[in-house]
Amino acid sequence: MGYFLKSERLGFRCWSEEDLLRAQELWGDPSVTALIGGTFTPKMVRSRLAKEIAQMQASCVQYWPVFLLDDDQHVGCAGFGPTALKRECTS
To answer: pLDDT tens digit string along 13-23?
Structure first.
C-alpha cells in the first residue's frame, strides 16, 4: 500500500483523492469526531480530505491514515497539525 512508516503492526501512508470513501467512514462517524466538532457532513469530509492532502504538500505533515499490516484494514489516522512541525517539504 505504499507505507512510508511501519511499526510491528501498523502502516502509515498519505491521504489521496481516492480515499474519499475511507475518509467518509472515518470523519462521518460520530464516535470518531465527537471531540473535534461532531459528525462531519459529506461536504465537510471532502473539505477535510482536501485540507490534509494540501497540508502534506505544503508542510510534509498531516493526520496520516493508519492501517493494520496483516490485512491493510484502515484503523484511523494519526499525525501532526501544521504548526507542530515546520520544515521544508522534499517530496
So the answer is: 999 999 999 99
